Amino acid sequence: MRAHILGYIQCHPQPRTSPTLSNATPEITLSARNLTRSFGKQQIIHDISLQLRRGEVLGLLGHNGAGKSTTLQMLTGCLIPDSGEIEICGINLRQHPQQAKAYIGYLPETPPLYRELTVRDFLIFAARLRGMKPAGVAQACAQAMQRCGLESVERKPIATLSKGYQQRVGIAQAIIHRPAVIVLDEPTVGLDPAQIRDIRKLIRELGDTSSVILSTHLLGEVESVCDRVEIMRQGKLIYSDTSVRMQHYGQVSGFTITLNNPPPIDELRGLPGVSQVEQLSAQQFRVVHAPDNNPSGVLLDRASQQGWQLVQLTPLHASLEEVFVQITDGEADATQEVQP
After folding, report:
1. Which of 180, 184, 219, 283 is most exposed, with minimal Cβ within 10 Å?
2. How many CB atoms lie within 10 A of CB 230?
């Protein structure tokens, strides 16, 4: 993989002007239409279409083996799709690969690092492979190291760094030329919680100056980093929406209540607006109601009048794990229409 990605950079050097995200950058920085890919007789990717907008962080979510890495390899030109078209900042990747790839920074799942080099020497090497003029290399390296928090280790051999710092070096080589589109494949895999927090913060900051697409199977990544989510299952896109709306997917209107002196359950079921009551324990109940008829106010008044001694009322909120299971399991019955 290291030779593959570095060979990709060397064969497609950057133009002398840096293709960064700016007001001149198209609103749609990456567009893929009807991509398919097979290995042998097995079709791995099925008619995938997606778009990445200017200044957006898009999460490509799915179980291991869903086809995320294969999709990203096609989007970066490292793997040719059997059919379909890809445009990077309006440039057709198949027809004009050198110009299109100039706008891309790519970090594969295994960072393409020469471990015997120091951080600084490796980034100089990456910058020169990108076709940068010698006069601009030092500044580009300094900016990449500053953005990735690498100044304190710039003279250390990459082999001596922790995995978290090696991941930072991998991101630094992807952004050394300040690309308009940054593609990150599983950028936090194998890191400890502190390293994950730092890398996620860095990705969020990269979204301020570039469009970012990242693959992940970690649901926390979606909540903390991504503006929008595409979910893959068995090589197909089955869901597309904002990360906020994903968190409310299939959400039931209701709440749980804890009462020190609860009434008979039928009395709770009889409250106006209540459609269902489930007893979870001797003092805790799950109350479901219509979205436009919340009975919590009535319940609070009745609890006060009847001495039910309300201890807690908590709105129902599905976890991201529950939402993900709902979406991916629901695909077995019907595929939700994807609208990039």
Report:
1. 283
2. 26
For range 265-272, the mean pLDDT: 93
| Long-range CB contact pairs, 270-279, < 8 A, 24+ | 271/295, 271/298, 271/299, 271/302, 272/298, 273/298
* Nearby residues of 150 by Cβ (< 8 Å), 6 or more positions away: 119, 144, 165, 168, 169, 172
Q: What's the rounded Cα separation, in Å, for the pair 147 and 54? A: 20
Q: What local confidence, expressed as pLDDT, does residue 336 receive?
A: 42
The residue among 62, 91, 90, 92 whose CA lies nearest residue 80 is: 92
Query: Starting from the edge strand earliest in sequence, which strands make up the sheet with 181-185, in order?
Result: 104-107, 181-185, 211-216, 57-61, 228-233, 236-242
For the chain, how big is the Rg over CA atoms in Å? 25
Amino acid at 146: Q
Contact 76, 46 (CB under 8 A): no
Q: Whole-prediction pTM value?
A: 0.77
pLDDT, tens only, 138-164? 999 999 999 999 999 999 999 999 999
Burial of 324 (0-12, 13-18, 19+ CB in 10 A): buried
Distance CA 220, CA 209 (A): 23
Q: Is the pLDDT of residue 131 over 70?
A: yes
Domains and CATH numbers, the chain: 2-247 (3.40.50.300), 254-315 (3.30.70)
Mean local confidence (pLDDT), 100-122 = 95
Number of Cβ within a 10 Å radius of residue 93: 24
The amino acid sitting at 302 is R
- The one-letter amino acid at 311: V
Residue matched to tokens 């869901």: 239
User: Dihedral, CA atoms, 294, 300, 306, 307, nearest 10 degrees?
Assistant: 140
Inform me whether the pLDDT recorded for 226 exceeds 50: yes
- Residues present in the chain in total: 340
Is residue 223 within 8 Å of 237, Cβ to Cβ? Answer: no
Q: Which residues contact 164 (CB under 8 A, 6 or more apart)?
A: 191, 192, 194, 195, 198, 199
